[in-house]
Amino acid sequence: MKRLQIEPAVTDAQILTIAGLAKEIWQQHFTPIIGAEQVAYMLERFQSYSALKEQLGEGYEYFLLSLEGTPIGYSGIHQEDKTLFLSKIYIKEAHRGNGYSSQVIDFYSSLCRERGLSLIWLTCNKNNTNSIGAYEHMGFRKTRTQVADIGNGFVMDDYIMEKKL
């Protein structure tokens, strides 16, 4: 397995790269789960260049995931008190199943230890069974459910999953 490069995304070029990755990954992965209309809405609202820039201004941190300098995915986090919210972790289809998500979680676990945080938590669509299985394999457990109105007639119907450190 190749070692994943995890680089903080701070430049406009990096944020543009992430927005492009989001479009590719979301259309491929989430269209069968939530439909093309909701994917388009969520890309614009949460994953577009302007949305990502706004989130950076609100304390979110983004990371570009690369192999030998080629971007294959991205991730986003937000520190909340003594926990770390894993907002996003997305990897291109061709690179899934190679342990890269585990490398990202290991990276965040180390970051949590450095920052004195005791828990990583995330939300995952209830029908995203492959991702749920991957998170459970990495030590996350479902702790509760959440239905969030995101506007335009759409909801996110998720499990909240946690990994204690």
Question: Could you explain the architecture of this structure?
Answer:
The protein is an alpha+beta fold and 165 residues long. It has one domain: 3-Layer(aba) Sandwich (Aminopeptidase), CATH 3.40.630.30. 42% of the residues lie in helices and 36% in strands. It is built from 5 helices and 7 strands; from the N terminus they run E-H-H-H-E-E-E-H-E-H-E-E. Strands 1-2-3-4-5-7-6 form a 7-stranded mixed β-sheet, with helices on both faces. The longest helix has 23 residues.
Number of helices: 5
Q: Strand tally, please? A: 7
CATH architecture: 3-Layer(aba) Sandwich
Please state roughly what percent of the residues sit in beta strands, choosing from under 5%, 5-15%, 15-25%, 25-35%, 35-45% or over 45%.
35-45%
SSE order: EHHHEEEHEHEE
Quote the average pLDDT: 96
Radius of gyration: 15 Å
- Output the CATH homologous superfamily: Gcn5-related N-acetyltransferase (GNAT)
Silhouette: globular
Q: What CATH first level would be assigned?
A: Alpha Beta
Overall tally of domains:
1
Regions with little confidence, pLDDT below 50 for 5+ residues? none
Distance between the ends: 25 Å
Q: In terms of structural class, how would the helical and strand content be classed? A: alpha+beta
In the CATH hierarchy, the third-tier topology is known as Aminopeptidase
- The neighbouring-strand order within the major sheet is 1-2-3-4-5-7-6
Helix percent reads 40-55%
**Biggest pleated sheet:** 7 strands, mixed
